Amino acid sequence: MYQINALNPKEEGHQARKRFGQNFLHDQRVIAKIVRSVNPRAGENIVEIGPGLAALTSPLIGECDALTVIELDRDLAAGLPGRVPHPERLTIVEADALKYDYTALFQENRPLRVVGNLPYNISTPLLFHLLEFGDKIKDMHFMLQKEVVDRITASPNTKEYGRLSVMIQYYCKPTFLFEVPPGSFNPPPKVTSAVFRLEPYAIKPIVAKNEKALARLVSHVFTQRRKTLRNSLKGMLVEEAFENVGIDPMARPETLTMAQFVALSDQMVA
Question: Rounded to an integer, what distance in angstroms lies between the CA atom of residue 179 and that of residue 195?
Fold first, then answer.
């Protein structure tokens, strides 16, 4: 069984910091399940975001010959070598994961495999930041609040389907893996969490003419999700645009597939 450190942050002399959104994972079964899902191998380029008290870092480092971790909290970063077996395999980058340039870690034929129990307060901007490096990333395994994972993996015609679903699924294949109850953390968060996988497409199944136009359109229609597309997109699209791509202008955004969103956004730049 993996050696898991830090069952209680206070016993480890660390006060969880609210501004960093710190909730420390301590449930050994959950930790073992995450490591099995990642299935790390020697020679792989594995990067953990927010290692915290090394609950996940310890078992990961036992399975691979090198592990890079990105930690913003200076106190936690300083304590990491003493918390893990094989500290010689560990590279610590003290940086803000939201601003970090992940190309610095990429090596030819060694795409990044990114893992993390992400701070929930920065999860969406961090995912979009990582997607900018999608061509350098093989896969990502993250834990977030279940409500966000449900949105990321949602299908059209569901209440969870929205901007996050469309934009992340444009770049990646998402897979919901399993739920994690609040009691698996210290301090326990107020919400149920979930672990999921993102695999960036080497070749996207559907490619927009202008990805910024797609992002703008998707963001715009979902801020007014009760409006019909015609009302929502007045001034952004001419009336014939709907006819050109065979989409009902009276439809609501949550009914559209990825291909339909791309077709509409292509009309903006036609």
Answer: 6
Residue 4 CB neighbour total at 10 angstroms: 18
Q: Strand 112-117 vs strand 45-49: parallel, antiparallel, or unpaired?
A: parallel
Question: Each residue of 90-112: pLDDT tens digit?
Answer: 999 999 999 999 999 999 889 99
Give the mean pLDDT of 209-233: 94
Contact 140, 123 (CB under 8 A): no
Q: Supply angle C-alpha 42, 46, 50, rounded to 5.
A: 140
181's torsion region: left (phi>0), alpha (psi -120 to 50) or beta? beta
Query: H/E element holding 267?
Result: helix 258-268
What's the Cα-to-Cα distance from 175 to each of 18, 89, 100, 119, rounded to whole Å?
Answer: 29, 29, 25, 20
- Which CATH superfamily, name and number, covers 18-200? Vaccinia Virus protein VP39 (3.40.50.150)
Contact 163, 215 (CB under 8 A): no
Break the chain into its structural domains and give their ranges.
18-200, 211-268
- Who contacts 238 (Cβ-Cβ below 8 Å, separation ≥6)? 267
Q: How many CA atoms, within 13 angstroms, populate the side-chain half-sphere of residue 210?
A: 11
Q: Please answer whether residues 140 and 130 qualify as being in contact, where contact means their C-beta atoms are separated by less than 8 angstroms.
A: yes
Helix (H, G, I), strand (E, B) or coil at 263: helix
